[in-house]
């Protein structure tokens, strides 16, 4: 049985303050509905200064989701670590961890858009050093004990709910990211199916004498929409999927590797490519069964500014026809979920790209 994920980035290229407010409220209602129906995790992310209103504040959104739900996890995949103040992140994550009873999962990458660094007044060339500082600071801060930080003694309270600390993963597609994760004994979250990078990370764990695990996307990890009439949905809403795919692809340099990178230039190409898929309920059941326990069934109900009623139809079909039909729905038991699998077993990944290094 694959893990079930509902993704929300709240993109809407034509959004107004009024329509975006409605979209955010609908996303919280969808999260509450997903929580009640046994979906495993909500996934969210961040980008800044975009022309289509991409969510810039994932921790704020995660807090709202926790307030609306009882058991579902929220995976922030990923934060752009060097843009954050390390002490403030330590405090914010600790509070979210307490508020949720341990349901927050954070993936920290370093991003791939220099303009986001410029907007925040952070030097692009210092991103690796800043990421090291962030991760090291978080691990010290969450002990609740005083420690040295930038030449002064500080202490972060309260301590988080999860011990020894909230689940924190290092995201990326480079050897530098893998080394960073191994050195700190943190799980590694590659941004694509990269077996050679997993092997490199495993070797570095042995070199540093640390413990960790790698969560790698499957070779195919599509973003899904459920419809009783895929032809109709492609005809009416294909441009929304293409918009999001195209914007994401425009940010990628040739050395960036992502599980959901699209090369499509038309709706027809996007449909044939398979990164975004619109499936009937029966097709989704078959896909879920074929994916198995190592897979993910990732619904993207509000993709690219999708109308709210169409997003609700997709979510209802997943929960009312796909999950019962494929025995994917799980009991609402408390489980540690990392956008994919249950801890402490090595979890499976979210299929979309964390900010690479």
UniProtKB/TrEMBL annotation:
SUPFAM superfamilies per record? Bacterial luciferase-like (SSF51679)
Q: Identify the InterPro entries for this entry.
A: Bact_Lucif_Oxidored (IPR050766), Luciferase-like_dom (IPR011251), Luciferase-like_sf (IPR036661)
Domain Luciferase-like: start-end pairs: 19-261
Q: Which PANTHER family does the entry mention? A: LUCIFERASE-LIKE MONOOXYGENASE
* Protein name (database record): LLM class flavin-dependent oxidoreductase
Specify the taxonomic lineage.
Bacteria, Bacillati, Actinomycetota, Actinomycetes, Kitasatosporales
């Amino acid at each position: 049985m694959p893990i079930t994920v509902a993704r929300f980035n709240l993109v809407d290229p034509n959004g107004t303050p009024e329509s975006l407010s409605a979209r955010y409220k609908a996303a919280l209602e969808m999260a509450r509905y997903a929580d009640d129906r046994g979906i495993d995790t909500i996934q969210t992310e961040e980008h800044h200064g975009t022309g289509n209103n991409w969510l810039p504040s994932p921790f704020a959104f995660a807090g709202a989701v926790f307030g609306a739900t009882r058991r579902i996890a929220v995976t922030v995949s990923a934060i752009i670590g060097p843009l954050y103040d390390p002490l403030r992140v330590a405090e914010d994550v600790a509070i979210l961890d307490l508020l949720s009873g341990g349901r927050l999962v954070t993936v920290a990458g370093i991003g791939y858009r220099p303009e986001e660094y410029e907007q925040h007044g952070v030097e692009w060339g210092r991103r690796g050093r800043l990421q090291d500082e962030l991760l090291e600071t978080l691990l010290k801060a969450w002990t609740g004990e005083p420690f040295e930080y930038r030449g002064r003694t500080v202490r972060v309270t309260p301590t988080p709910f999860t011990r020894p600390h909230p689940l924190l993963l290092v995201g990326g597609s480079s050897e530098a990211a893998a080394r960073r994760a191994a050195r700190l004994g943190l799980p590694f979250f590659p941004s694509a199916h990269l077996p050679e990078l997993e092997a490199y990370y495993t070797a570095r764990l042995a070199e540093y004498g640390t413990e960790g695990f790698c969560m790698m996307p499957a070779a195919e990890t599509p973003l899904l929409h459920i419809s009783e009439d895929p032809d109709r949905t492609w005809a009416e809403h294909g441009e929304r999927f293409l918009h999001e795919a195209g914007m994401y692809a425009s940010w990628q340099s040739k050395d960036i590797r992502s599980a959901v990178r699209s090369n499509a230039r038309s709706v027809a190409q996007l449909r044939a490519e398979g990164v975004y898929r619109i499936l009937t309920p029966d097709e989704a059941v078959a896909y879920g069964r074929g994916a198995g326990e190592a897979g993910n069934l990732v619904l993207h109900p509000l993709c690219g500014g999708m109308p709210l009623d169409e997003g609700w139809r997709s979510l209802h079909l997943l929960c009312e026809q796909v999950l019962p039909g494929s025995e994917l729905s799980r009991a609402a038991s408390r489980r540690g979920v990392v956008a994919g699998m249950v801890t402490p077993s090595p979890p499976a990944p979210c299929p979309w790209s964390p900010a690479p290094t």
